[in-house]
Specification:
This protein is of the alpha/beta class and 286 residues long. It is built from eleven helices and ten strands.
Amino acid sequence: MLSLNIAGRLIDFDEPKVMGIINVTPDSFYSESRTPDEASVLLRRAASMVEQGAAILDIGACSTRPGFSPVPADEEMRRLDFALTTLAPLRDSNPDLIISIDTFRADVARHCAVSYGIHIINDISAGQYDPAMYATVADLHLPYVLTHNPVNPQAVAPGDSLATSPFLPSVAHFFAEHLSRLHALGVADVILDPGFGFGKTLEENYVLLHHLADFVRLFPDNPFLIGLSRKSMIYKLLGSSPEEALNGTTALHTIALQAGAHILRVHDVRPAVETIRIQQFLKLNS
């Protein structure tokens, strides 16, 4: 059984989990996911995700869309204060709900952990945007999402593909190197995210998805989080838009689940939950 210690509970990933995306931002790439500074709207959206079957909510207050310009840290923290305060009643009524914070800033991660008792740090930069992140996660004793993101450590925004050649071995080396650094600091609970859309060409994204099962076998002690929802690798290939990419998202989720994915990070919870239910039924009855 593959499990992680999250908030003092052993959470097993034999059955994949759905992570709902809560964007407290005005500029996330998928416009329908943007949540204004209205407590009732935010609470209604989050409650709907939980009702539809999300086990985890991933709250982000700084868009990391391609070419993003990061908001100042104090604005990111203000947005997260608003979101986490607003969602307190939902957490009270759903004590098993897992809260993840999507941030690349160590100070923001610490603030959310100390002030609100969040459970997971989801850092799209693998500690490359803030060198203090790994030590902070170790100090907080929180699970960490390690994302493959081959960026220039001095850059703030992901640019064009910077992956070294050959591509797949470079991804494996990246995970192995960063896992070693995290383990040396005492971080035991690490979730791996292949980083679809981060520093990769369209073709590289699909090569990575095609070989996802190889990475699941290569790193058997780590759950894999898959972030494909409505991304450009879908709508650019199909000549559509994020708003029209749900069907393509479900298709790729099916492929990812067959390859052994453990967490689907999604804008649309119900379709992902239904995809998992069908995949699990097929798995148990094959």
